């Protein structure tokens, strides 16, 4: 072996023999190292030990690995293997010594965008999601970009939502393949919303019904707890309560063979033909869940009658039980009426033409003035700032003319840039031809503006609403003179649902040139819309402004806060004041039984009113019976100078954005991807988004001069895609569609079961009854006890004891 090594390397034969055959584990070394080398290697060893990942350690080793042997390296870094040492040398050769390689995560999409869009549409539908006028959630993408969405309430748990969604897909879209359950749970967890176990506190129908269910259960536990059927009745009661909270709103339809689900049958007035409509079908079927509610309540009432022996206690018990039952049935009827009134909104938006607009009006909760540094003496006794929100929508005619042609100038979401929390980026259109299975209706595109009128001091009455409406339509007419007609929707507040507001359309037409065609009201306590959503967004925006050492104590400061940092997209705030208040003393108009009517259509001969949307022919009130000569109050407003209020688009965008690439470039790209030994050091930096890379400079120059740029579709993870779609759909103004599915649990109506009467869901107006002498005496005694003894009774306790 000595002779062989002498022939190979005559001058270093001994060193070759030592490196090849010496025992490395012995720890002995004849190499003499100087002090500088030891210091350098000690630093390398320390850096290697402090590194947290193998990638960092490999980059550190690549500085010295090509220059020294493995044996010498093991003297300073004991335990290093030959494989890791070779990997460090390969890293230095491939990427240069000590260079840091950015690891790009490759996203593999095992889903289609339209599958996510389909599920998100279901999640934000009205029966699953309820808007809140306060609060905001933050969605954080994997790139660090934050998306701000208004807070919403999910009316049921995640498991129940997914079960309903899969049932909906099975019944309505049999050819559509939804995502798996684990993916759906991931989307619900990613798209944040508040989840509540009940609807108590949302409106008084739900609150009273919730108390009624709890009260009936307590009656069973207190009076018939030992009865054999008590456990079964309580379980059926829970089942009925959960059905009304979730599935019932899904099963309601405009026309159905089930009386509990048929809007036309439930809302037809049996006494007034003007508000009634005959169904073209029989109601010979029953819903198992609705029957469960009726049968359970009947059995509980019968059980209470059998177990209670004292007649006076029985009378009290049955009266309390029947009041509970009325609250539950009122909630059920309220749910059906709300769905029918919401169908009016969908119908108007589907038919909205280019010269028409749709308005949603609502007063926001008064804003309490706040200083950034507020003393305790100014904290109490504040007077709130009134602010009114009007959301104006119009049909986007330009979007229809494009015929879904991709425009390169369209803004595309770029994760590398920070996105404004209120930027309307709509990814709901990122789908392929399979969407025809999901929704065969043509989806409309809309533009919208939001007007915010802020008052230091005003009365929230019908005169103020008419002045605000007149001001909004004047602004719209100035920017869009082609607008001729307007449709209005609001809640049931007295300032809107007022004869003075309704008859003001004539004066508004004369001043603005825009004719109000109809005004519709949602069912009481059931009309949450885009105004509530924008109230939440604006409150968060104002709070961020205030937290940066600004005061918000007046209407002008509130307007300045709304427009701070370029404002909220599409929102135009005005500091307003009502003039000539003396006009309020003029004669007011009245409409008999106006609280019974929820839909008002303006015709040449008079005002056509309906109790429920599209039920019956309606009642025509001639204009001769209405006083239409009331003047409109003057509204003066101030806004931020040089502020442009543009329409915001909500049109859908398509993701088919792949540009043509010539064969030469494709081959170059493929060859560069297959080259594992050489790095593609030439990257296209001319066209943003081009992913072409080249090994040779000549190919790079050819690509710039004559080649076409290679742009590929940006791949996103399922979580990021779901968050972006959820954000864009919540930011859209009118994106809610009622999801309706057929009911599988259908039976033929039993002859022994009492059928529901026609018009069972119409609102019932309770008559005010006077207290008896005995009741007044009892209340006076309780009142006097509170004065003399200082023991102030709570009204609820007194009512229960009475």
What labels would you give this structure?
single chain; 802 residues; alpha+beta; 27 helices; 13% strand
Write a brief caption for the model:
With 802 residues, the protein is an alpha+beta fold. The protein is 41% helix and 13% strand. The longest helix has 40 residues, at 311-350.
How is this structure best described in words?
The chain is of the alpha+beta class and 802 residues long. The strands form four sheets. Strands 5, 6, 7, 8, 9, 10, 11, 12, 13, 14 and 15 form an eleven-stranded mixed beta sheet that branches. A three-stranded mixed beta sheet has the order 1-2-3. Strands 4-18 form a two-stranded antiparallel ribbon. Helix 9 (181-190) packs across helix 25 (718-731). The termini are far apart. Mean pLDDT is 77; it is low at 23-30, 197-201, 403-441 and 652-678.
Helix content: 40-55%
Stretches where pLDDT falls below 50 for ≥5 residues?
23-30, 197-201, 403-441, 652-678
Note the overall shape.
Answer: extended
Give a short account of the largest sheet. Answer: 11 strands, mixed
Number of helices: 27
How far do the termini sit from each other? Answer: 114 Å
How much of the sequence lies in strands comes to 5-15%
Report Rg: 36 Å
- What is the number of beta strands? 18
The structure class reads alpha+beta
Q: What is the residue-mean pLDDT, rounded to a whole number? A: 77
Which helices and strands occur, and which strands form pairs?
Elements: H1 2-8, H2 13-21, H3 35-50, H4 54-61, H5 70-76, H6 82-95, H7 113-123, E1 129-140, E2 146-154, H8 158-172, H9 181-190, E3 194-195, H10 204-223, H11 230-245, H12 248-251, H13 263-266, E4 285-287, H14 288-307, H15 311-350, E5 356-363, E6 386-395, H16 397-402, H17 435-438, E7 446-455, H18 462-479, E8 485-490, H19 499-502, H20 505-512, E9 515-521, H21 530-546, H22 555-562, E10 571-578, E11 599-602, E12 606-610, E13 619-622, E14 635-638, E15 648-649, H23 663-674, E16 682-683, E17 693-694, H24 697-705, H25 718-731, E18 746-748, H26 773-789, H27 795-801
Parallel strand pairs: 2-3, 5-8, 7-10, 8-9
Antiparallel strand pairs: 1-2, 4-18, 5-6, 6-7, 7-15, 9-11, 10-14, 11-12, 12-13, 16-17
